[in-house]
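Worked problem 6 (solution included).
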Amino acid sequence: MKRSVADSIVETLINAGVTRIYGIIGDSLNALLDAIRRSEKIEWVHVRHEEVAAFAAGADAEMSGSIAVCA
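Solution. The predicted structure is:
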């Protein structure tokens, strides 16, 4: 199977220690979401608004002491 840019991004996130991504599903993220699903190492947390994703990722990072991502 060919490796995509999304696969490389997910691998980089996994190597950085990311375990959760907060975000909104949409056309611009479909390839990334598919790569996340295939990896089974990062949890996607769907939110209803971009601002909520940023707040959730910030709180997650503060409470866990690890990297959290919003998309």
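Discussion: The chain is about 50% helix and 15% strand.
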